[in-house]
Specification:
By secondary structure, this protein is an alpha/beta fold. About 45% of the residues lie in helices and about 20% in strands. It contains 8 helices and 11 strands.
Length: about 220
Amino acid sequence: MRLLLVEDDRMIGDSLVRGLGDDGYHVDWVRDGVAATAALADAAANFALVLLDWGLPRQSGIEVLRELRARHSLVPVLMITARDTLEDRVQGLDAGADDYLVKPFALAEVKARIRSLLRRHEARASAELVHGTLVLDPVRHEVRLRGAPVAITPREFALLRVLLSRPGAVHSRTQLEQSLYGWSEAIDSNVIEVIIHTVRRKLGAAIIDNVRGVGWRIGAPP
Ligand code: CA
C-alpha cells in the first residue's frame, strides 16, 4: 500500500519511512508543500493515504490540503503538526483533514491512526450510492437502474460517482475534468458534455441538471 509522506524534518521523515516500511507500506517522501501539491495533482488516486505536516517550506500543509480537496480528492489525510491549539485543530479539520496528530508522537500511534483511517475510508469507498431507483455500486463497478444493470463506461461511471457523492453540489467543467482525468492528459474541450450526453441517453435526460453558466449537478431521482 502506497502512502505519501510530506515532512521537511529529516529525522521524523526517516523514522516514519523506516517504521511504516516495517509494516509493509511503501512510503513516497516529499519535503515541501509545492512538491506535495505536484505529487497529488498528478497522482492523488495512487496514494491510499497522505501524512501531511503543517509547517512546510514553500507552501503550508493547510494550503496543500485545501488544493487537494478543491480537486474533490477523497484520499484520507492525517495532519501531523507541532501546533496543538483548538483553533489550529478546527482549521485543519475544516480544510479537509481526516485526523490530526500532534508532535511529538509515538510511531505506534501513527500506525494505529493510519489503520483506523484506512478502514473508515474503505467502508466509505465501498458503500453503494443510491439515488431513487438508481444504484451505483463501487465494489462491482456497476450501475443499476430499477434493479437492472446498465452498460456504462469507466468515465461515465466516474462522472456519476462524482455527482452522486455530493448531491446538490454544482460541479464546474474544470472540476469535472480534474476529477475524471489526470492533469497531464490532453483532453478535448467538449469531453465533459459528450460524457453527460451519453449518461443522459442511458439513464434519462433528467439524471443530470445543467446550471447555466456554472456547471452540472445530479438531477431528480429516477
Ligand atoms: Ca515541519
